[in-house]
Amino acid sequence: MSDPRAHPDLAGEYVLGLLPPAEHEAFELRLATDRPLALAVAAWRDRLHELDAAAAPIPPSPDLWAKIEGAVAAPQGAATAPAASVYPRAEAQGRPSFFRGLWESLTLWRGVGFAGAAASVALGLVLVAAPKPRAPIAIAVLLTSDGVPGAVVDIYADGESLVAPLQDVSVPDGRTLQVWTLPDVQRGPVSIGLMPRAARTRLASMELPAPKPRQLYEITLEPAGGSPTARPTGPILYKGYAEPPR
Amino acid sequence: MTADVFATDRADPCAADLAACARGDRAALRAIYEREAGTLIAVAARIVRRREVAEEVVQEAFVQIWRRAGSFDPALGSGRGWVFSIVRNRALNAVRDERHVPVEDDALAAYAEAATDVDDAFGRLAASSALRRCLGGLEPRRRASLLLAYVAGLSHGEIAERLNVPLGTAKAWVRRSLLALKECMA
Hints:
The structure holds two protein chains of two kinds. Chain A has seven helices and eight strands; from the N terminus they run H-H-H-H-H-H-H-E-E-E-E-E-E-E-E. By secondary structure, chain A is α+β, with helices and mostly antiparallel strands. Chain A is globular, with a radius of gyration of 20 Å. The termini of chain A are far apart. By secondary structure, chain B is mostly helical. Helix content of chain B is about 80%, strand content about 0%. Chain B is built from ten helices and no strands. Chain B has helices spanning about 5-10, 15-20, 25-50, 50-70, 80-100, 105-125, 130-135, 140-150, 155-165, 165-185. Chain B is globular and about 50 Å long. Classes of the chains: A alpha+beta, B mainly alpha. The interface between A and B is large, with 56 and 66 residues.
């Protein structure tokens, strides 16, 4: 263990796509603020890029550009697929194609088109409508894969959390939204509660340590009653990390 | 505009196009597409194995490129590298979503193709390339461990299975190959 060569080059393994899901997630969060790490990733991308650049091109189908142009012209959030689960390798039994179909169903996405405008309005409502002037010890703003705010989680000192969705999502019958956090990479994601409808939801106290700065939170779509494996199995709708309010 | 900016544009036209995308210029996105789509589909196809899925990946990636162009930071590598990294990430996500779908024959066929693709990717590197020289200096199975991850998108477990070695060995090979490559290319 004392041999430095025994330690993985995380930036290199990240660029190779080899980090286990939870580590991959934690690594990307670090990247946002850790400049030397971001430079190490950039160096690995440069070193390996030629393998991609030298690939023999496959001509695109004639209609591919039209599809891209259509999606780009559509309102934000309406046309893109979700971020794949950050824990994809952890739950082999997740019936991925089913979830993929579910995600792409119009029902689920109805109403999301207004997300951009609604987000700022809803954010205001959260502030105005807060039931009592109790200050959270941390707040997590969860984003869609396109960086649009999707939900806010307030975490209180007694372990209670308040989740406020910022987008309209129709949760299909037999499904629920589930809120997760990642207290530490070794332990893995921990459920902090279910949200059967996309509405402001108070989640009971959890015996979890107070969130660390930049602790990951996310909301996934799961079977009613919650994930059967105690790990996220469905697509991630929103994710982001907690910070104490300044 | 200074001469330096033009020099940068020539070396990495994607960087200039991304800046234009961030200003809402859809022709710049089209320019990236015209230049790179074929290669991007090829890179995605080596990971997701199916051409139609590769096209979906590239389609989603272009939407993401358009929306995130403003966050491209030229200090963190080339515009072209940024575009490719978005496609790679989406391809890896797609394959990890679908890898568990039980299609034995397809999976076996895909495995065989992965090996061919990996050899092909190495073989296509320019003779003068430092990457080629340095990869060429690795023991063949260690080189394969690295290429199976990068080119074919395999996990540590899949690489171990593929190379018929214990998981710990596969991890150690990747680790040492990265170290050797970094030193060789320094």
